[in-house]
Amino acid sequence: MSQSHSQIASFIWSICNLLRGPYKRNEYRKVILPFTVLRRFDCILAPTKDKILAELPHLYGKSDNIVSESLIRITGVPFYNKSKLDMKKLLDDTDNIAINLQSYINDFSPNVQKIIEYFAFSEQIARLQDANLLYLVLQRFVTDELDLSPQAVDNMQMGLVFEELIRIGAEQSNEEAGEHFTPREVIKLMVNLLLSPEADLAKSHVVKTIFDPACGTGGMLTAAESYIKELNRDAKPHLFGQDWNKESYAVCCSDMLIKGEDARIEYGCSFEQDGFAANKFDYMLANPPFGVEWKKQQKSITDEHEKLGFNGRFGAGLPRINDGSLLFLMHMISKMRSVEEGGSRIGIVFNGSPLFTGDAGSGESNIRRWIIENDWLEAIIAMPDQLFYNTGISTYIWIITNKKEQLRKGKIQLIDARLFYHKMRKSLGNKRNIIGDGDDNRFDHLSLITRIHADFAHNQELEFLCNTETKTAIVSKIFDNADFGYSKIVVERPLRLNFQACAERIDRLDGIKAFAKLAESKKKDPIEKQREIEAGKALQNRIKAALQGMDASTIYKNREQFQKALKQALSQNKLSLAAPELKAIIEALSERDETADICTDSKGRPEADTELRDTESVPLKEEIEAYFQREVLPHVPDAWIDHSKTKIGYEIPLNRHFYVYIPPRPLEEIEAEMKALEREIAELLEGI
Questions:
Q1: How far is it, in rounded angstroms, from Cα 586 to Cα 563?
Q2: Are 192 and 227 in contact (CB under 8 A)?
Q3: Which of 86, 254, 442, 468 has minimal Cβ neighbours within 10 Å of its Cβ?
């Protein structure tokens, strides 16, 4: 009887019971994953083992290329093993099991050896041997209960087993929300949205390239390939991926190797070591980590931004250091084919932060502006929460393309699919919701979202199923690109001050830095230092005395008049002060006064009061002056705009556009519930 991928994964993970003690829970996958991969290779090669051993004597002395080509022809898969041993035979020599296992691994073809190397498996072999666990673990992996042959577990199912093992391992490690894995139904939806408008996929022997810069175990790549081959079995998808998690990279390479995919997977950070610097791709998909900082890569990314600008990948701007999500999108956009070459389509999963984080002029806002003003943003789909295994946060799928259909040009579609889900019978980590399928097309959420995207309708209202409850809501809205842009203007108001040389204001001088520094010294010699401090204190006292000699009852409402009086008082006391000291006196003796005259600069222009400074966000579709006349001047007639500080910003408040006001319940209803609860509590108390 065939087993499901979850049953197989559960059996494999049960082997971890042997590891308790020598291994911590978060270390189990260091053993489980490489052993699973090794066992899968072992099962695939078993039918051709005798033929390989029979052929080896005839290949003695031949070049490595000839040997590889000959053995691959025999195995029928792009790898081989030259050892006389297999994983079951390793159990026959218990005294040398560690040495023989390492020898068995070394006899694999170089591509498999590289995969095992990225698992750092040699360290685990030694560790298991020291703990007297190697034989026991190996024995469990080669039991007849675990049949990983292609006849028992096909390639697609094996890929799901790998993903399930990684998911459980991540859950055991309590990994942060940024480290998550993409559920299959989300991948399928992304592929649908990305590829469904593509008319040329049905062409005979069409060649398409697919890229994922954060490919993990390769789920998105293989799902996209499967979709294309469902449409056209003669199509030739070429897969490209990169990841810097060694375990995920090794599993991805294993999966691709087992399936015989036309795939090129690179290891390393996509930002620092772009494995495909010269490549452009037809389709790109990614689910980059959410809210993960890029401090380790800061220098190389900042250098590229500053030195190359738009000739590099990050010319539009840099996001905050604690969230590098938008860096992945810019990286992918840099790999779009030109329109003349056929263009590209991108699907990427984000949390809510890239929609609105960052004020006008910030890195995030400038990146959004660059994308929208280039008319690349096609659609954003708000997804249900609790869809992912290791995080319950809400997510959004962005569709980016430089080859929009004519009716979509200059437009952006927002889709609200937050209620398109069913509750799972059993949670998997943080995953409690699933995008449902059903016989009734209204309740097939994947097809429904794909259809809503294709309909491209404004204020589209539909009936759908949310966790067995039928709901009706507006699910799609269409906007102009400019609807998400705004001008952030700085509104200034004039500085109005009155001045008075009263005792209370004179005492404020001691708290002003420029005045206090008069009685400080940087001299190293103690005698000179003390002499300078004493001289400063004497000057402070002379200044205060000069101010005390002014008329304390006079309140000046004109700064120039006060400055003349101040100059006269200082002159009478033979004091000539530098600009910082004069500024300190004016600061101490002044107070804001709406009835005072406006303070002006040397050219007679009004000075702005920084405490009254305000900002306004003016929609791009509206004239700034008209907005200012209507919304600002009626309330503050003396205000003006400092146009030198105006900045353009972009944000996408998707949730606000789909907000539906729900009125509070009637007070009578609430009161009735409270009284019912009071009666219930009283009855319970009587029974005590």
A1: 8
A2: yes
A3: 468
What are the residues facing 268 on neighbouring strands?
none
Quick: pLDDT tens for 510-540: 999 999 999 999 998 999 999 999 999 999 9
In a 10 Å sphere around its CB, with 0-12 CB exposed, 13-18 middle and 19+ buried, how is residue 371 labelled? Answer: buried
Q: Cα separation of 364 and 358, whole Å?
A: 5
474 and 537 in a single domain? The answer is: no
- Looking at the structure, do residues 502 and 476 belong to the same domain, yes or no? no
Task: List helix spans (H) across 21-109.
Answer: 29-45, 49-55, 64-75, 97-106
In sequence order, what are the beta bridge partners of 606?
600
Q: Which of 607, 640, 666 is the last residue of a domain?
A: 607
* Residues 202 and 291 both lie in one domain: yes
Collect all residues with Cβ–Cβ distance below 8 Å to 88 and sequence separation of at least 6. 142
Rounded Cα gap, residues 86 and 50, in angstroms: 11
CB 252 within 8 A of CB 215: yes
User: How confident is the model over 199-204, as a mean pLDDT?
Assistant: 78
Q: Could you tell me if 301 and 316 are in contact, meaning their C-beta atoms sit under 8 angstroms apart?
A: no
Taking every pair of Cα atoms in the chain, the longest distance, rounded to a whole number of angstroms, is 114
Number of domains in the chain: 3
3-state secondary structure string across 222-240: HHHHHHHHHHCCCCEEEEE
**C-alpha distances out from residue 592 to 492, 500, 558, Å:** 15, 12, 12
Report if residue 478 sits inside a domain.
yes
d(CA 135, CA 90): 9
Same domain, 327 and 202: yes
Query: Which domain, by its residues, includes 478?
Result: 184-486
Q: Specify whether 132 is located in the same domain as 268.
A: no
- Encode pLDDT of 335-351 as tens digits: 999 999 999 999 999 99
For residue 140, is it within any domain? yes
* Nearest-5° Cα angle at 204, 201 to 209: 50
Burial class (CB in 10 A: 0-12, 13-18, 19+), 196: middle
Last residue of a domain, one of 546, 573, 607: 607
Q: How many CA atoms lie within 13 A of 272 on its CB side?
A: 12
Q: Are residues 547 and 596 in the same domain?
A: yes
Query: What pTM did the predictor assign?
Result: 0.85
Beta strand 263-267 with 236-243 is: parallel
Q: What is the pLDDT of residues 240-289, one digit of tens each?
A: 999 988 888 888 898 888 877 778 999 999 999 999 999 999 999 999 98
Is the Cα torsion angle 453, 458, 462, 468 positive or negative in sign? positive
The verdict on 62 and 210 lying in the same domain is: no
